[in-house]
Design goal:
five-stranded mixed β-sheet; mainly beta; 2 helices
Amino acid sequence: MFLWLVTFLMISASVSSLEYKLHWEVPPANASTSFNDWASSKRFQVGDIIRFKYKKDSVMQVTKECYKQCNSSHPRFYSNTGKTRFMFDHSVPYYFISGTSGHCEKGQKMIVEVISNDRTTTSSAPPATMIVWFCFFSFTLYLVA
């Protein structure tokens, strides 16, 4: 007779991701900074969120090629709710443009570089920006004669 004992242990270190707020609008013609300047000043990681806030506009995630050409015909993601939350789920560059005609060409576009989940901190406190799950499975087989 075989008796299977399955033990499942889940340990979590409860930490959170960061949420960034961004006013998504056509930059003024004389603007000294761009959305890319803003994005490159941040350390986006997997699990982080950008909250786009806008009026009478939209936000699209597109390919690198569509970004370069301001092509909004094949978005990977599209929203026009005025309050869009976008969560980064991979460590890759993300390309965003406005879906409103002419806005991308006027500078309403942005590249976000997302890095892996090893956010570092200079303090001695543990990082509070990652969700870590450790799963330990122990399967024990008992042979009863």
